[in-house]
């Protein structure tokens, strides 16, 4: 049996539609032709590693937006959980509720120890093509720094 695999560098990222922390519907295709998207999957709102990662994206948010990128976080937490998480840590970017885990499955985000949802960051260019994939549960800082390097190189290209 072939193992499922998420989109790789050079492939078109799967489109999706999910509710944000504000309740509006967000589609990946809404950004096509307009902005690079930094799509990061994380395990759970208000946990130490996920809070550190979200705050790291928050602290670099201005640099991402200046380079023409939109940051989007995805977890299986509810819209209400995302709303509280975003307010508590003053997160200026979108958090999407993937309640059934369908988008996580479409991107083949692995589970750690088979139970903890994985942590994977994608950089998707304006044409919807994956330009960077980084997967690490522990190396949280590299998710932000790696994505930023790619976003800045796309902005100057």
TrEMBL record:
Cellular-component GO terms for this entry: cytoplasm; thylakoid
Reaction equations catalysed: a hydroperoxide + [thioredoxin]-dithiol = an alcohol + [thioredoxin]-disulfide + H2O
Sorted UniProt keywords: Antioxidant, Disulfide bond, Oxidoreductase, Peroxidase, Redox-active center, Thylakoid, Transit peptide
Positions of the Thioredoxin domain: 7-156
Matches recorded under CDD domains: PRX_BCP (cd03017)
GO biological process: cell redox homeostasis; cellular response to oxidative stress
GO molecular function: thioredoxin peroxidase activity
Domain of life: Bacteria
Broad enzyme group: oxidoreductase
Localization (cell): Thylakoid
PANTHER family on file: AHPC_TSA FAMILY PROTEIN, THIOREDOXIN-DEPENDENT PEROXIDE REDUCTASE
Quaternary context: Monomer.
The name this protein goes by in its record: thioredoxin-dependent peroxiredoxin
Species the sequence originates in: Catellatospora chokoriensis
Phylogenetic classification of the source organism: Bacteria, Bacillati, Actinomycetota, Actinomycetes, Micromonosporales
